[in-house]
Specification:
12 helices, alpha/beta, globular, single chain, binds 5-S-methyl-1-O-phosphono-5-thio-D-ribulose, 19% strand, Four Helix Bundle (Hemerythrin (Met), subunit A), 2 domains, Rossmann fold, 7-stranded mixed β-sheet, 4-stranded mixed β-sheet
Length: 361
């Protein structure tokens, strides 16, 4: 995807020193800054402090974290320590564990002297694969938008999305926004309702930013508006991403996704979840009970960041200082509210038989 006309991925490796570059997403949309990860701890901090976020990009960053760790100390002890340190950075997105497992199984039987080069190679493969998976999700999701466009010839297709499951959440393309970019590029008139996604505003800050960079018409709405728009026939479909989907089709995603799914169900609006295979956890059957939900800091709820009248970036408190806060970062949408999963293998039903047929070799 392009930022002001220049092609970027969200993460890349500087060939000469092995350092890893990322787009610092805590600065968007107010400033476009590249940050450099020079060691294992930098990668852990970037994930934990959300300079990178979005399940696939968290996995890709963890993979490069392992490469940085192996470059500095390829011993077996350090391999285990690095994997444990990265694993603890964020608990919900299964892509993190998936990427670490992939690195560990590649590295564990290699000679220490070979581990650094191998870890960089695996990280690069994970990134390239993510781009391919997301582009494929875009192609499959496009068929859903095309079908909708055939039912409404000449009319704009209104798509609601929650959080940021665009290219900033992946290495490129995105999951939920990938079909929208494909539809826009083929000339289908699309318009996106962007949930602001409190408390961290990934919709308002990130989805709006990247849709704007691509020229896709969009409107930011506060999180409580979606149900009302659906009741008035103003949403043709919902497209969201996922941090972890169980083998039974329960979908864990950014907090607030469940309420949108309920509203979609009540209003017969199709609710699609774009899920690349590394986000599907085949070991889990019950999303509500088995997926760990990340609890984040009070400050994300008590404060908000924006530009003041002079254009200076400002961080202001919006709560009484004595008020308690609870900040669950994700929720689980039971599979019965999911119309279908859009995967790299195609559009499939959100149930065990369909997921098994597609992904359990
Ligand atoms: O807390 P975040 O910003 O990492 O949460 C991101 C989401 O919930 C996304 O919808 C999900 O990771 C899918 S991204 C392709």
């Amino acid at each position: 995807m392009k930022i002001n006309g220049t092609y970027y991925r969200t993460i890349w490796c500087e060939e000469d020193q092995g350092h890893v570059s990322i787009i610092d997403q805590t600065r968007l949309p107010f400033a476009f800054k590249i940050a450099t990860l020079t060691c294992l701890e930098d990668a852990r901090d970037a994930i934990r402090d959300m300079l990178v976020r979005g399940a696939p990009l968290v996995g890709a960053t963890a993979a490069y974290g392992m490469a940085l760790a192996m470059r500095d100390d390829p011993s077996h002890e350090h391999l285990e320590l690095a994997a444990d340190l990265l694993f603890a950075a964020r608990p919900t997105a299964v892509n993190l564990a998936w990427a670490l497992e992939r690195q560990k199984s590649a590295l564990v039987n290699a000679e220490p002297a070979e581990r650094s080069a191998l870890a960089y190679q695996v990280a690069a493969e994970i990134c390239d694969e993510d781009v391919a998976l997301c582009e494929s999700i875009g192609e499959h999701g496009l068929t859903l938008i095309e079908a909708m466009a055939e039912r409404k010839p000449g009319e704009t297709i209104h798509i609601l999305t929650h959080c940021n499951a665009g290219w900033l959440a992946t290495v490129d393309w995105g999951t939920a926004l990938s079909p929208i970019y494909k539809a826009f590029d083929t000339g289908i008139p699309v318009h996106v309702w962007v949930d602001e996604t409190r408390p961290r505003n990934q919709g308002a800050y990130l989805s709006a930013y990247e849709l704007g960079q691509h020229g896709v018409p969009h409107t930011v709405i506060v999180d409580n508006v979606g149900g009302h728009l659906m009741q008035h026939g103003l949403v043709d479909m919902c497209l969201v991403g996922t941090d972890r989907t169980t083998r039974t089709g329960d979908v864990c995603n950014k907090i607030g996704t469940y309420l949108k799914a309920l509203a979609a169900h009540d209003n017969q609006v199709p609710f699609y979840v774009c899920a690349p295979s590394p986000s599907i956890d085949l070991t889990l059957a019950d999303g509500l009970r088995e997926i760990p939900i990340e609890q984040r800091a009070r400050e994300e709820v008590s404060h908000i960041t924006g530009l003041d009248a002079q254009g200076n970036l400002t961080h202001v408190e919006i709560l009484p200082t004595h008020s308690g806060v609870r900040n669950d970062a994700f929720d689980v949408t039971p599979s019965r509210y999911v119309t279908a999963l859009v995967t790299e293998k195609g559009v499939i039903e959100a149930n065990e038989a369909a997921i098994q047929a597609a992904f359990m070799e």
